Amino acid sequence: MNKLILTMLLLLTHVSSYAVSLAWEIPKDERVEITRTAAVKFLVNNRMQKIYQERNIIDLTCYEKKAEASSVRGRFSVYERGSVNEVFNLREQYPSEFEIDRQGRFIVPKKYLMPNLRNLPAFPKKDVAAGESWTEKADLVLYAFSIPFKLTFPVEYTLKEIGKKDTADVAVIQYRFVVDMDLAGGGYPADFPRKIIGKDEGVINWNISENCPMTMKEKYRMAFLFGDAGKQVRVNEFQMLIDTVMKMYKPVTKEERELARKELKKEIPDGVDVDTDRRGLVIRIGDVLFDFDSAGLRGDSREKLDRVADLLKRKYPDRELIVEGHTDSIGGRDYNRRLSVDRARSVAEYLKGRAGADKLSYRGFGADRPIAGNDTKEERRKNRRVEIIIKLQ
Prior knowledge:
Number of strands: 19
Helix content: 10-25%
Order of helices and strands: HEEEEEEEEEEEEEEHEEHEHEHE
Radius of gyration: 25 Å
Strand content: over 45%
Distance between the termini: 59 Å
Number of helices: 5
Shape: globular
Structural class: alpha+beta
């Protein structure tokens, strides 16, 4: 055996015996943004019913740091995009406040539904070397029924390898869990399934250097069996391929937000305003984008949006963007809500490719969030607007 081969074997032996400590660590006042994007197939009795994409964006800010845990509060936002849609629609949001200990266990008060998937990944207290495996319990909270229901199951993990990405030490972790729960005869509400079966398997890239997640890919399948014994059974099945990306953000002060507003204001086109609120920057465009009773963009409005898109692409390529539509109070509530949604979608679809933004969504509020009264023509004009939120917090 020559010296080169012997040296390589010695190096491989050294790497395989290298053990690392795996732990969660969210620094005080910092925010972790977790973006989970799922390609979803929904089947009933093995027949395809719907194909769509669902996205969760989870914002958690550490407000208190303890020796063995991080106290976090934040918001879980759920978005949906149909197979023919270009942009995600913001469907619902849930607040939450809980603790994450260093091993990845979540301590969540009962009043919060989110996070609905808890304690994944979770780590042993001892150091782990490449090739080693461990098992920890996870929870899944199901809230589509008359009352929330929590499943608890073991998750099997294996540390496949330890490598480098840029300057960070990265652990590549494989995991797998199986759910097989019989609820028949258990005294559950009538709308509950008789049986729940499923599995999830994936790969996690974990930043060892900073004790936080980086990316995750998973293949998820869950089936719910409904119907009484002796009758026809209906099986609702969800199949998902899920990509998750995590990113840490430093806190942004009021002074920094105000400075960012002033810098953006220097380049923003005439007729467009820039404001700040607790979420970050707000680009406010009046009703000049649309003709009366229309959600189609006017030809002369596209130049304004092109300039806004260029600013977003240059200055905020990694930030979440939310396009919100608003109307005045003239007209019925349902009409105003629909018009505000359609106008927000038109702007979001126009910006998507031009701004190079992936974390882009839209929603409409109708007349529910005025910035002025609705008594005069000028006040109603101010309320008819589209706002682009650049999320900094």
